[in-house]
């Protein structure tokens, strides 16, 4: 059942994707942009509802959770992730329609990003209104427009799937 649900999610992502070549960019560590890449957005929560707060939880990879603000209206979840300042790598086969790495994690030695990562170790995509609860996205990041003032979440977990992958460990509440 979990594989069927994952396959349906992957197909939805692919169906909504814009054809684009994959660009492999690695980062020396989470939180650091690669040399020559300027960070967009700002660190921390968006101060008001004029932006989208993006939470990246590296929980299955052993790094601290990052929170950044993508200012203003965001056309897609992928745009919010990138405009908040995260470096995104898609797969060779699907481009950024299937997000394989965020800020170089997992590393190329762990996941080559040729096709889709395994169903037991991938970036799950979540969303929530300010003050609400995280909801596992049924759409890919290229097929969802986050509302102003909302939260976008990314959580990496090992040995979990669509029904067991935990949401980000940060509550979607703007301080």
Structural summary, described in words:
The chain is of the alpha+beta class and 175 residues long. It has helices at 2-16, 77-83, and strands at 42-43, 51-57, 66-71, 88-89, 101-102, 121-128, 135-136, 151-158. Strand 2 and strand 3 (66-71) form a beta hairpin. The radius of gyration is 15 Å and the shape is globular. Mean pLDDT is 82; it is low at 1-28.
Task: Throw out a few tags for this protein.
2 helices, 6-stranded mixed β-sheet, single chain, 175 residues, two-stranded antiparallel sheet
Write a compact overview of the structure shown.
The protein is α+β, with helices and mostly antiparallel strands and 175 residues long. It is 13% helix and 21% strand.
Envelope shape: globular
Integer average pLDDT: 82
What percentage of residues falls in helices of 4 or more residues? 10-25%
Q: What pattern of helices and strands is seen along the backbone? A: HEEEHEEEEE
> How widely separated are the two ends?
38 Å
User: How large, in whole angstroms, is the Cα Rg?
Assistant: 15 Å
